[in-house]
Amino acid sequence: MTGRRDNPHDSLFRGIxxxxxYAASELRSVLPERLSAWLDWSTLRKGPADYVTEEMRVRFGxxxxxxxxxxxxxLIYVAMEHQSSSDELMPFRMLEYLTxxxxxxxRMTKPRPRRLPVIIPLVVHIGSQGARxxxxxxxxxxxxxxxxxxxxxxxxxxxxxxMLDDVTALDAAELAERxxxxxxRLMLNVMKAAPNNSGLDxxxxxxxxxxxxxxxxxxAFRVLNLLVRYIMLVGETEETALTPxxxxxxxxxxxxxxxxxxxxxxxxELRGRAEGEARGEVRGVVKTLLNQLQLKFGxxxxxxxxxxxxxxxxxxxxxxxxxLTADTIEETLR
Length: 334
Description:
The chain has helices spanning 8-17, 20-30, 33-38, 54-57, 90-108, 147-153, 172-177, 182-193, 200-205, 208-216, 220-234, 239-247, 251-269, 271-297, 302-310, 313-322, 329-332, and strands at 39-46, 63-69, 75-83, 118-125, 163-166. By secondary structure, it is an alpha/beta fold. A five-stranded mixed β-sheet has the order 1-2-3-4-5. It is globular.
């Protein structure tokens, strides 16, 4: 597999948060106040795109930003990752991610720096079915140590934790109180509410203020197009249900709705071939993973085989990475 296969959730998240102005809105709402005050937000910019290997690119997002400190003394990286499920090994995954960024910085900076840049790792979790994050954010918690030696061994273990924004745990009122730009708040609300929702038009009607501001903005068509596409892909809301609402926000909003619906219909005509190709790739990953499980752990139970065959591409790609460090089949498939 040569690249990360986007699912609708990642596509919407990266489509919005990939813009520095929108990313700044999210970051400034979650970072500690003193840290936020140290950063020069006018310098926030997209980071390099070649900081991870191809194998890692399958498992990680591409949202890396650079920002300068207000005192001019430091270059800071901000690594932002979207997760739709709670992952026990996320501290390891993030640390692996960060070391790639540091390695690239040392390799590309001339003369070679004597200090490493600060990296602020943020995981934004929007769980499916309303599931909240349920695992530790600290790397040290991945080790099994008896209390009798934990205080001795602990000094020799990496100390690292990532910042977690568990959006799933927030209700609409809490999101409304956040100092977010309307594009980001609307995206977060939609990602929480749209999956498998046949009545999203009613929910959208509650967010008319944000919708109106987005429709009046310079990025209106692109943002609304991304949102509509996501709603139609993951939910059960038809174009006809959205039309009266979008008509009220002017011609650009209406055009975004119609364009997204037309493109999805056009893609639907080619879906048979595309899905056939995708199924072929997924079958290849399934076969590889089952072979790896058998080689590492011996005979694979029938129930595990069925679980792997029924998994979605995101889980399969995560498991292929986790098997490298897992000691049991259960750890691999978490």
